[in-house]
Amino acid sequence: MKSISGKTAIVGIGEVPTGHFPDRSFIKAAVDVCEMAITDAGIPKQDIDTVIPIGVVSNPLDNTNVICSWLVEELGLGKTAKSNFQVMSGGSSSANSLKVASALVAAGLSKAVLVVHCDRMGTGLDLSAAISMFSKASINQEYEMPYGFSQLALAGFLQQRYMYETGTTERQIASVVESLRKWAALNPNAMLRKPKTADEILQSKMISSPVRKKMMNILADGAAAFIVTSSEYARDLTDTPAYVLGIGSRCTSFTVTAQPHFDCWQPAVDGAYHMAGIGPGDIDVAEIYDAFPTFILISMELLGLCEKGKAGKFVEDGNTSPGGRLPVSTNGAMMAQGHTGAGGGMAILVEAARQIMGKAGERQVQNANIAIETASGGIGMDFHVGVLGKEGQ
Amino acid sequence: MSEYNKPLPLVTELSKHFYDGCKQGELLYQKCDDCGQIVFYPKELCPACMGRRLSWRKSNGKGKIYTFTVTYDAAPPEFATDVPYALALIDVDEGFRMMSNIVECDFDKLRCEMPVEVVFDQITPDIALPKFRPSEPDEQ
Ligand SMILES: [Zn+2]
pLDDT digit string (tens) for A59-87? Predict the structure, then answer.
């Protein structure tokens, strides 16, 4: 396969604070992040010829409207835009959008692509409706739903098996959340900025064993955007492009029952490293899609950042926290930044670009030359890995 | 039998065959006549060879817990009054995995790789849900 490694770059990003903002309208947040990304890139807006609005979960009408070019009109792109269409694969929509945007640019079909996500999972949807949705979405109605399965129970399944296979302790798993909270404390856009120790997390109520209340992500309102263009054009626009060096993907199944083992996602990792021409030792910062702490540990091991079964100890020892050897999920990820529906992966991807661009403020990782980011959708239906770097083609 | 208020299985041509089996006390799965692939959940096409000649077989109903969780809170609304309840992925002897509840069991004794066997829970006149219980007496 002909590689697009280094041929495209993220040139601008935008993000508004994640949290509960009942008075912030959908369209205001959406337009704000687009404007920020355009300003950040310094790109003439008429060069943005493609808009990809990621799926909105909390309100089907908002979703229909963004599919029907609402943002093209709001941003005044109506005389220059060629395409407005949706990429939707749940939490992995970010990764799939980066892939589609890069391919369009590399093929010469697009000059610049604006990818935008906005959703109001925190205040646009009442809690019982949200619980009900996550007990039905991507769950098999013929053979699974009758048993009371939910996405929380999935987290219980993963953690139980992972602990059984690796001997990882509950405390080590809680320390993942501790690390994320430390990062969130440095992130003005994060929702849960108060530090929590692993012991405090272990004292929280058991929800779906062995997952406790403070090991769960939290639904929130949020919005983020990024702009992809060619590496050639990127250099004209900015001194700090985040080049797209590698992309790897694997889509396995609808049901968790059909996922053979954690290793089923390994080809996504191998593909991304191969395209980027790098290995785990080259990674300066890892932005890992979470939803639940075990998923971060499993992903770190798949990425080769730790030996199999050793990620929990690595995190417990402080290696992934601010000042640690390998910063992981420096925005606080969904467990501290907040879960915005299909936008969970978007925040992770934007943070990876931010670190490469050197725009991460207090939480900037020194010498962040290469960042890796991951995303997953459904009930672990897929796994995507992206490598961003400071040096392109 | 009191009214059953939880989600019932979506009945399709394939799932009806499966649940008709459950009503007879049989746990059914498919095997591809062309390539021998064990197929579960029931499907139209063999996911290995795309063949359509899938024949139904009867499982011995025994297996092992691959993983499990006990839900104490934030259950789907229809299950809120059932907490705590145990969910598991079970590796059935014939070579397929399925989701179910673990019943007739002390939840504190649940563990991965624990041997279990199927029991059928007649939840409505039409539907018997396959559930599992520990198959070694000292673990019940
Ligand atoms: Zn076959």
Answer: 999 999 999 999 999 999 999 999 999 99
Chain B's closest residue to A128, CA to CA, is: B77
Select from B40, B69, B97 the Cβ nearest to the Cβ of A156: B69
What residue numbers bound the domain in which A106 lies? 2-125+223-237
Indicate the residue of B78, B85, B97 with minimum beta-carbon distance to A257: B97
Looking at the domain B16-139, which fold is it? OB fold (Dihydrolipoamide Acetyltransferase, E2P) (2.40.50)
Total count of domains within chain A: 1
Mutate to test the interface with B, among A147, A152, A157 (most CBs of B within 10 A): A147
Please answer yes or no on whether B99 and A257 come within 8 Å at the CB atom.
yes
Query: Model confidence at A344, in pLDDT bands (50, 70, 90)?
Result: confident
What is the Cα–Cα distance from A215 to A59, expressed in whole angstroms? 27
C-alpha atoms less than 13 angstroms from C-alpha of B124 in its C-beta half-sphere: 12
B111-127: per-residue pLDDT in tens?
A: 999 999 999 999 999 99
SS3 string of A123-138?
CCCCHHHHHHHHCCCC
Sign of CA dihedral A358, A363, A368, A371: negative
Q: How close is the Cα of B54 to the center of ligand 1, in Å? A: 8
Determine the distance separating the centroid of ligand 1 and the alpha carbon of B56, expressed in angstroms. Answer: 13
Complex confidence, ipTM? 0.96
